[in-house]
Write a structure and sequence with these properties.
The complex is a heterodimer of chains A (about 260) and B (about 500). Chain A is of the alpha/beta class and about 260 residues long. Chain A is about 30% helix and about 15% strand. The chains are: A alpha/beta (about 260), B alpha+beta (about 500).
Chain lengths: ~260, ~500
């Protein structure tokens, strides 16, 4: 190592986020939304009308995080009666937990009863993932890559992405699932040994997002297989992804 | 033939007089014989009895964009001679017209499917049945890779025809990412929906594509924006460029096993994209660019954060680049590998950083200025060698140049009154009926072109998107000829092209 490299190492310093559970993002970050209990039906209707991805149902007073593209327009048209907090822990294994209701404002959790038993016993200490993009726009892909970089360092928990589906314990899908990728996606999933995890990363993967009613999309894969983890985001923030996995695996972020 | 300018008002469709194809053909050939002119868009616009094929040729010397057109009747069964036979740069446009509508071209050198879209003219053409070239003979073999690659990336299929370790030919099959975006933009008519979709054309170019969309919507509705907003947009575009160029530097270090370079650049990219997050709440700038205005005016606090972060990035990136470009182990992988000559780059119509690395002076920021580049003259840097080294070195130079530009814009923005905030986005835009508009943006990969045609009610009836990757994928194939197959990963990374931006 020459002098310049020493200088770079020293300027580089310590980069990793020590406690991934307690890191605070900028107040502007668009994480878990909340709906004021005193929001009027008119305000909800305004939000439903402006929502580009039909994530809001005014009648029921629900915002579906699985459809939300996090554009924040509903916050603007309701003067903050719907507002986005900077809470990035928004991954869950239960689609019901993705429904934000005006009555309840609480953290998004995993449904412990719905976690398959073998997940924690098989993958609790090490988890190898294979990622497949099926119409992903490369922002989710870059964020999943970033989950393993020097800042977020997912590798410290024994979680990493691998090249071959044969080496993988789980499949992470990004993108709305295109027709042209349907065949390859099936082959990849079938090539993975059981038991295996299925993770949907990003709003596009969870619901199709803006592309849900495009004719170039084929989401039949998800009628065959049930996801073990839904990670909302446009794109998914690395902290959202890592925390979601740690909860699923029953791991402590500080271990 | 009519003329327009980038980021200017729309023109009535009726002012475009279709030319007789023979005349059109000769005119395009003669226009494109000059290096300063290149085709930025050429597409078929469906009409009742056929297609109006609209071709836009940008003149880099006069800042003008010439629009010329010809008509193809549905009943036509005779072929028309392909322009690609003389100008390969047009191959993807003609392939697209052939694939979407079955327009018959004769003597096209490469009339293969482009992206296997929904509703293609030939229903039997599926991505599983791509018509590969094949190679037989002693010592030759073929290697297939994809569509799923080893890393966390998008899908695409590559087939190498090799003689031993030497690649004789590389064929890229794209289309796996096809989401039907151009059709979707006609179904989703609200400008907010269109804006959000534009951000996802290529998520790594969120600012570039959402800006191209916003500029187009503003052109179609004659909306004027403030000098402040135009500077903020320029600043955002340059932040995106810095972040992605640094990410590419990191990826190159990873592929050449230089770990210090990889991790140092990863950290610098994080610092850079976190300025976007501090500005608008999203690391890629999603939500920042909207037509007519923004919800996120950059005030002093944001500008200070950006300036502090990028001053730091500039120093540290220079140090790590100094290491990278003096390490013999790195240089031996970069120098003379994956070269694209000036002549090849021109023939293939290369754009952006890849074109500039091969000595082609093509940069929309200087030749068809938009936003803040109209008032802040921009002078692009050019490299001559066209190899991996030139592309990587140009990234280093552009990072420094872009950071200087960001800092100067931040200074100018800080001098503005904090009392004037930006107008909020305009979603009640009235588009000119039966008009055509164009917007060009120099994203970090290169030239992005969005075009729209409106119908008699002022609704968008055709939306055309061109990511720089549409041109540059063929450049990668040509650059790989006679190279070692083991050099493909770094050669591919030095281009770093978009799959979703190409597949749409």
């Amino acid at each position: 190592m020459n002098l310049l490299e020493l200088k770079i190492s020293s300027a580089h310093g310590v980069q990793y986020v020590k406690n991934l559970e307690k890191a605070t993002l900028t107040p502007l970050f668009r994480g878990r939304p909340e709906i004021d209990t005193n929001i009027s039906i008119q305000e909800l209707q305004r939000a439903e009308t402006i929502c580009p991805s039909k994530a809001i149902n005014a009648k029921m007073g629900i915002l579906n995080l699985g459809k939300c593209v996090f554009c924040k327009e509903c916050e603007f048209v309701t003067q903050g009666k719907i507002r986005f907090t900077n809470d990035y822990k928004i991954a869950t294994n239960d689609p019901d937990c993705l429904l934000i209701r005006k009555e309840i404002s609480s953290n998004i959790r995993l449904n412990e009863n719905a976690i398959r038993k073998e997940i924690r016993s098989y993958f609790g200490r090490a988890l190898k993932l294979r990622q497949v993009s099926s119409g992903g726009d490369n922002s989710n892909e870059l964020e999943l890559y970033a989950a393993g970089n020097v800042n977020f360092d997912m590798g410290r928990f024994g979680i990493e992405f691998v090249a071959s589906p044969r080496h993988a314990d789980g499949l992470v899908i990004t993108g709305p699932l295109t027709k042209n990728m349907a065949g390859a996606l099936n082959i990849c999933y079938e090539a993975m040994p059981s038991p295996k995890l299925l993770i949907l990363a990003g709003t596009d993967a969870i619901s199709g997002g803006m592309f849900a009613d495009s004719e170039a999309i084929d989401r039949s894969f998800l009628t065959k297989y049930k996801a073990d983890l839904y990670v909302p985001g446009n794109p998914v923030h690395p902290l959202t992804f890592i925390n979601g996995l740690l909860y699923l695996l029953g791991r402590n972020a500080m271990e | 033939m009519i003329e327009l300018r980038n980021n200017d008002t729309s023109v009535p469709l009726s002012s475009i007089t279709p030319l007789d194809y023979t005349y059109f053909y000769e005119l395009v050939i003669s226009l494109l014989s000059i290096e300063a002119k290149h085709c930025v868009s050429y597409f078929a616009h469906p009409e009742k009895d056929g297609w109006l094929c609209i071709c836009c040729i940008a003149d880099d010397e006069t800042e003008k964009i010439m629009v010329l057109a010809h008509k193809v009747k549905k009943t036509r069964s005779k072929t028309i001679p392909a322009l690609s036979a003389k100008h390969p740069a047009l191959h993807s446009y003609e392939r697209e017209m052939h694939e979407n509508y079955g327009i018959p071209f004769a003597n096209h050198p490469w009339l293969k499917p482009l992206r296997f879209p929904q509703g293609a003219a030939d229903e039997n053409s599926t991505i599983q049945r791509y018509p590969f070239y094949s190679l037989t003979g002693e010592g030759t073999h073929e290697v297939g890779v994809g569509p799923i690659h080893a890393g966390i990336t998008e899908p695409g299929y590559f087939r190498f025809c090799c003689n031993g370790e030497k690649v004789l030919h590389l064929e890229s099959v794209l289309g796996f990412q096809h989401r039907g975006i151009e059709k979707l933009l006609l179904k989703k008519t609200h400008p907010l929906q269109q804006s959000v979709i534009a951000e996802s054309i290529a998520g790594d170019t969120t600012i570039g594509h959402s800006l191209a969309y916003a500029m187009l919507a503003e052109s179609l509705s004659d909306t004027k924006i403030s000098a402040r907003l135009s500077m903020e947009r320029g600043m955002a575009l340059e932040i995106e460029r810095v972040a992605m160029h640094i990410a590419d530097t990191s990826a190159m270090c990873a592929d050449t096993a230089y770990q210090l370079g990889q991790v140092a650049c990863e950290a610098l990219r994080t610092i850079t994209i976190n300025t976007l997050q501090a500005w608008c709440g999203n690391r890629f700038g999603k939500g920042l660019i909207r037509p007519g205005g923004t919800y996120y005016t950059a005030y002093h606090e944001t500008l200070n954060q950006i300036a502090t972060a990028l001053n730091d990035v500039k120093k540290r990136y220079r140090d790590i680049s100094d290491c990278i470009f003096t390490l013999p182990g790195m240089l031996s992988r970069f120098e003379g590998v994956g070269a694209l000559t000036h002549k090849q780059a021109l023939q293939l119509g290369m754009v952006g950083l890849t074109a500039r690395a091969s000595g082609v002076r093509r940069d929309i920021r200087s030749t068809h200025a938009f936003m803040s580049y109209k008032t802040h003259a921009f002078n692009p840097n050019i490299m001559e060698n066209g190899d991996i080294h030139a592309r990587m070195m140009l990234r280093k130079i552009e990072v420094e140049q872009s950071i200087d530009l960001i800092l100067s814009l931040a200074d100018k923005l800080a001098a503005l009154s904090i009392l004037t905030s930006e107008s909020t986005p305009g979603y009640q835009l009235q588009y000119q009926p039966e008009s055509l508009a164009i917007s060009l943006v120099e994203g970090w990969r290169g030239e992005i072109c969005h075009m729209a045609v409106t119908n008699e009610k002022g609704e968008i009836s055709q939306y055309k998107i061109k990511d720089p990757s549409l041109h540059n994928w063929m450049g990668l194939s040509i650059a790989m000829r006679n190279q070692q197959i083991s050099d493909f990963p770094i050669c591919n990374k030095s281009f770093n092209l978009s799959y979703c931006g190409h597949d749409l």
